[in-house]
Amino acid sequence: MDLLKKAARNAVKHCLAIKPKEKVLIITDEPLRKIGYYFFEAAKEAGAEVVLTEIVSRTRNGEEPPSPVAELMKLFEVLIIPTSKSLSHTKARREACQQGARCATLPGILADTMKRTLNADYSKIAERSNRVGNALQGGRVIHLKSKAGTDITFSMEGRNPHPDTGIVHSPGHFSNLPAGEAYLAPVEGTAQGVMVIDGAMAGVGKVKRPIKMRVKDGFVVEISGGPEANKLRKLLEPVGQLAYNVAELGIGTNDKAKIIGSVLEDEKVLGTVHMAIGDNMSMGGKVSVPSHLDGIMMKPTLEVDGRVIMRDGALKL
Fold it and tell me: Residue 206 — φ and ψ, nearest 5°?
């Protein structure tokens, strides 16, 4: 069988549990049109009342969809969103989930990623993601460091971790596909130190020369490195100060994922940690801005209140 068709069927059946007669909306754009149609066919095979709509590609991750599409999203029970720019951290997606839609976004998914990671065993990924989430629950201070030079601390007091399991069976639930992480929003204004991105960076791709970000009082105040650092600065400058907010800590839990330069897959790689800058409203934070960019760190060590959760990329749970 075509591996893309099999992957779409696996997601429709196991990740989203789509039932006959359910109202399903597929939102895609020109670069991911082919993948949108695979999901359309898989949902149709499942007996759903499925609609496919194509939007003009957004200019950046986190930019809102057209307002009529945002309203349309609220009318469906299931949303599947393979688009070239992410709609995950948008008001439209959050409001649709608040209305009861269960939603999977697949921002920038590549055919190779879909074949490999959507044919994974999501029951195992869910179990691992929940274990990581449980290890973070109730923590106060996180310390993240790596041999590449990352050394950053921040408060997570009052912030709940969110396991991204890929199991989206209940009204209002949301996940990326491929899934496989546990994430949370650091308390605004508390992050201090240095982040060194030596895996990949959203909007930039795989990094040959690490990107170094100096962080003070919750904001990135300096970005240095090579061409990749220059590209990141150009992405952030038009958006404004809030785009530099330290927005997310995430721990990858997907054993099928690889660093390929596509953040959707990169941030899920088992043995990595990522930190994002920009919007954090979707993860329980307070900063709303049309930008959310993840940077992946290889083989880090992560401590919660002094307890080692990961050492040099190996989970210690």
Answer: -60, 140
The residues, any chain, with a CB within 8 Å of residue 288's CB and separated by 6 or more, are 91, 242, 279, 281
CATH label of the domain that carries residue 22: 3.40.640.10
- List all residues 6 or more positions away from 19 whose beta carbon is below 8 Å from its beta carbon: 46, 47, 48
Torsion, Cα 277 285 304 145, to 10 degrees, reads 10
**Average pLDDT taken over every residue of the chain:** 96
Question: Structure tokens of 55?
Answer: 């939007």
- Bridge partners (DSSP) of residue 196 are 212
pLDDT at 1: 60
Q: How many domains, the chain?
A: 2
CA dihedral for 306, 310, 311, 315, sign (positive or negative)? positive
User: The pTM is what?
Assistant: 0.87
Quote the domain boundaries for residue 112: 3-117
Q: Which residue has the tokens 């993840």?
A: 294
